[in-house]
Amino acid sequence: MATSPLRAEELERELEQLLGRDVFPPPQEFRARALVRDDTPWREAERDPVGWWERQARELLEWSEPWQRALDDSNPPFYRWFVGGRLNACYNALDRHVAAGRGDRVAFHWRGEEGEERAVTYAELLHDAERLATVLRERGIAPGDVVGIYLPMIPEVAVAMLACARIGAVHNVVFGGFSVEALRDRLHFSNAKALICADGARRKGRKVAVKAGVDRILDDLPALRTVICVRHTGEAAPMRPDRDLWWHEALRAAGPTPAEPFDAEHPLFVLYTSGSTAKPKGVLHTTGGYLTGVAWTPRHVFDLRDDDIYWCTADVGWVTGHSYIVYGPLLAGATSVMYEGAPDYPDKDVWWEICARYGVTIFYTAPTAIRTCMKWGPEYPLRHDLSALRLLGSVGEPINPKAWLWYWRVIGGGRCPIVDTWWQTETGHILIAPLPGVTPLKPGSATRPLPGIDAAVVDDAGREVEPGQQGYLVLRRPWPGMLRTLYKDPERFVETYFSRFGRETYFVGDAARRDEEGYFWVVGRVDDVVNVSGHRLSTAEVESAIVAHPKVAEAAVIGQADERTGQAICAFVTVEAGVEPDERLADEIRAGVAERIGKLARPARIIWANDLPKTRSGKIMRRLLRDIAEGRALGDVTTLRDPAVIEQLEAKVRELRAAERS
Ligand code: PRX
User: Best mutation site among 318, 422, 445, 519 for ligand 1, i.e. most ligand atoms within 8 A of its Cβ?
Assistant: First the structure.
């Protein structure tokens, strides 16, 4: 259904009409060319799920040695896939394409914040990865050692990850938006032996020193004996000769290291993500299974092929960047865009300018970004020619139908299927999503599980609920890309994911509904994890950053529904006796959170409480706090110790609302 160019004033009316439409079949033009046009993959995978994954692994990856056994499920939940097989992740992402004569193909059209451009080919990535591998090896990094990566969105981040994989080192990428203190914790938990960072980073025309900040934490990390620093912004970067190397100097001096095959179950990376407690979880992925999943999904969910220009706007510091900026696209030999900057610098049309400039055909972003663009207005995308786009993706949080329709109509011109992809750091790759040439779309639903995936919605007892009813999302069958454990914490792994419904059912942590047609509607988290702009944060982690302020007595953090960011952090704070809470204290609290975690975790709202609602046994009743913050009628209050607490908080929230309105 391609439609004519859009006039802003007509849009509102048109979207109103679209809101009444529940189902969007795959657009004709797209369907005619799609890689998958019928339900064969589902049928084949249902007949023999393990055999089906084996076929994908064989067809999409190059193995140095074949596996003897596809799945070892003798000790759930510690599954092993492609047992005995050997391969190298970097070889599959780079060498293989260069060896096939595709070295000159652009892997990344990199775009810097100030408009700089670099086209980086597969041969160039390989050249650098081969040399960085040598440097790491010479610094004593052995297979299984962890290397921290704390870099902005520059091609070096992909080189760094792949160089680790080349020598069997395990990378631990930490999002550049996390503070150095958060970096320190993660590198400490993973016992990292080396760190790759940059001299500085840029954000909307400002530069910040990174290496100088990193130096502050290195004394706390005795195992970390090597820092490799990329020259990026020219910020002063103090170098300690016995520990620190400049990337460009080290690479210039190094020769190449060949890719060494590793066991399919050799760890590929650890990525820390938030859980119910303040301590982040080190999600561990291994090689053969993870690569199979991230090689399969781009072709089938994004319909990715050779002539596409693909752009995923995530940051490599999150799993989306690992799977769908680095491993997935590079395994496919795709050409991608990588963008360093913000969506509104130098102006709010920069994303669309980039799409037009490189002829982006597949665009993958988060609902929060779409809602922000909606707020800015359609005039920004309308300034540019977006006619090359043929598929749009969404990830990270539920997408509300209004944002879905805007995306469909304004960005996609009504001709691009929208693939709403549900997955997690733990799942490694997309698990619930449409196959765009086949699946009719319903705005707000990630549609159906991919072939080979067995998802269900169950009640407290683990029984499947009736269609339309809400319950817990679970996965009942192992899949190759699933996490293998939590780094150095197998007990927490079992306890978090495989205790609630037994050792063979993966507990996702999301609430969901499944409709009569088997479509999944993910509602949100059921644990104390908040999803702000698609970023996963733990309420406990934010609380502990808040109570670190000497004037704060207690804090309870909840995720509050927010039109733009999905959820926003709302903190109920009590202060020490004699302290008068004011805006200055609120600012100090926010600054403290930024320092301990990162700016993304700063509370949008701080509500001063005389006391927090607790049960008689002293447990904070977050459920009530959520109701209060969102102005809902309170649920069951019978276990509350002191009902007066609630009245004070409700009055505060009313006051705050009135102030926000005016
Ligand atoms: O609650 C779900 C939500 O994000 C969580 C996973 O977060 P993270 O591990 O940081 O990975 C984000 C990128 C894959 C899930 O438990 N989520 C992710 N995608 C969707 C989603 N919720 C609804 N719809 C989605 N498409």
Answer: 422
